[in-house]
Design brief:
Radius of gyration: 18 Å
Oligomer: single chain
Helix content: over 70%
Largest sheet: none
Number of helices: 2
Low-confidence stretches: none
């Protein structure tokens, strides 16, 4: 299913971005000249990503339950 490929790819990319931001935050903390604004931005983005990843993981299962017609196979009307 193309939808699942997009979701899985998005999850992987967000996990990579999350790891990069964690590394960047470590570097910013080690550098006394680092901008607190930059660190705050990294933290905010990291927080958003940690919320998005579980939502995408849940969406992967919803998409998996959708039939070829685009209707949910677990719905009563489907």
């Amino acid at each position: 299913m193309p939808s699942q490929i997009v979701i899985d790819s998005s999850i992987v990319q967000l996990q990579r971005l999350s790891a990069y931001l964690v590394d960047t935050l470590g570097e910013l903390r080690a550098d006394s000249r680092a901008s607190t604004l930059e660190a705050r931005a990294c933290k905010e983005i990291l927080l958003s990503i940690t919320v998005l990843i579980p939502k995408l993981q849940a969406a992967r299962y919803v998409v998996g339950e959708t039939s070829e017609t685009g209707r949910c196979t677990s719905c009563q009307d489907g």
